[in-house]
Design brief:
With about 160 residues, the protein is mostly helical. The protein folds into 2 domains: about 5-85, no CATH class; about 90-145, no CATH class. The protein has helices at about 15-20, 35-50, 55-65, 75-85, 90-95, 120-145, and strands at about 30, 30-35, 70, 75. It starts with 12 loop residues before the first helix and ends in a 12-residue tail after the last helix.
Length: about 160
């Protein structure tokens, strides 16, 4: 590996900035990059493709959680969990129905203020029971897809 790392130019300013911030030494030397930066980048890019993340997402994660996202070039377990959860829809998203207009005042609200975003207990019960039904059906379908049989749910009659 006797290459001219100082002439390497296939890196982004974000990658260089992150490396300079996360490593004690500088990443530049006489208008060229250090060998360690280039080697780190060569190891990091396949990891970024495998886990589908960018430098901007690393910086966002570290700013929000104040936890280091990478150990060397490998993502930490908490960062992996954050990556998995970033596109998942939270159950609470279904409960938040958005803002109401003045014409909707009194239709499912606890009080008559036009800026109230609360939903009444009946609506909450309907939403929760719909979610429970959805989760139960999806769990049963996932079991069926894996070939697990549930007692009493066979296709043949006893």
């Amino acid at each position: 590996m006797n290459r001219n790392y100082g002439a390497y130019a296939n890196y982004t300013p974000e990658e260089l900035r992150y490396y300079e911030n996360s490593h004690a030494g500088k990443a530049m030397s006489n208008n060229g990059v250090y060998k360690r930066f280039v080697v780190w980048l060569f190891k990091l890019r396949p990891t970024m493709e495998d886990f589908n993340f960018s430098i901007k997402e690393i910086e966002t994660y570290e700013a929000k959680t104040e936890i280091i996202a990478l150990r060397g070039t490998k993502p930490t377990n908490t960062f992996k969990k954050w990556l998995f959860d970033r596109y998942q829809t939270k159950i609470t998203s279904f409960i938040e129905l958005g803002s109401y207009e003045e014409k909707d005042v009194g239709k499912g609200l606890n009080d008559n203020s036009p800026n109230n975003n609360n939903i009444n207990v009946d609506q909450m019960k309907k939403i929760i029971s719909a979610l429970v039904l959805l989760l139960t059906v999806s769990y049963g379908l996932s079991l069926a897809a894996t070939g697990v049989s549930i007692p009493g749910c066979g296709e043949s009659a006893p």
